[in-house]
Amino acid sequence: MKAVTVPRFGGPEVLRVTEVPDPEPGPGEVRVRVFAAAVQPADLAIRDGWSPPGVTVEPPVVLGNEFAGVVDRLGPGTEGRRVGDEVLGFRLLNCQAELVTVDAAQLVAKPAGMPWEQAGSLSASGQTAHVALTLLGVGPGDTVLVHGASGGVGTVAVQLARAWGATVIGTASERNHDYLRELGAIPVAYGEGLVERVRAVAPQGVDAAFDAAGRGALEASVELVADRDRIGTVVDYPAAERLGVRGLRAPRTAERLAELVRLWEAGGLRLEVAEALPLEKAAEAHRLVGTGHVRGKVVLTA
Known about the structure:
Blueprint: E1 2-6, E2 16-19, E3 29-39, H1 41-48, E4 61-62, E5 66-74, E6 86-90, E7 99-103, E8 107-109, H2 116-135, E9 143-147, H3 152-163, E10 167-171, H4 177-183, E11 186-188, H5 194-201, E12 208-211, H6 217-224, E13 231-233, H7 237-243, E14 246-247, H8 254-265, E15 273-278, H9 282-290, E16 297-301
Parallel strand pairs: 9-10, 9-12, 10-11, 12-13, 13-14, 15-16
Antiparallel strand pairs: 1-2, 1-4, 3-5, 3-7, 3-16, 5-6, 6-8
């Protein structure tokens, strides 16, 4: 099969689409023929040499942490799954390929009407947003500041917070302000003067802040939110430790992913795909994500 491989750590130019052996499902696993797999900032970090907590990544490595496709082979002990099932799911690495093996418990059914590109882009960003807002205790009556609100994680976070009864202020570049209004957020431009702009649109104050952007977002947040236990980040863990706010992490689960799928089916979740590119254009996809200005997600199609 073809797979997006990192033969050595470095910039986007190191990426190669290579032929690697087809994986075979073990006990409790299924094999999925991948139709779409999104590119996350975490993929760029791994390409540069970062290892996720508890894992040591050494090249060569196949990238990708989320996918959607069709089950094409069953391992022993996978009752409840059938060849031909349309699914979306997650695993650590190996998803940006024509085939992936995965624990059957990390899959959910893909709705018939969900486009493949959207299905392949939901799990990582969607679950990151869900975990973050849950840990920050976001609920009815809150005013929540979402930094990086037009990106993949931010797009879902805005809509989840709105669905859970919160008012949302979202930071983004000016060109994405109409987009944020469509999602139900009050947009503000990031950068110098952010604290004053947020106070102008939220004179009642801000109850919680979620950083999906970095770039000084936490420093602004501690000026706006009184309770530092309700400020968290998924991108700037060193600043979180320095400022005494929360670095947000939790395991991904099929139950959480299924909740997001149900919200999409009910019309309460819009998924934005900025670009869908073939595996062979993985380097271009990494460059796009690396700009930090993608609206929604960039997806690779196999």
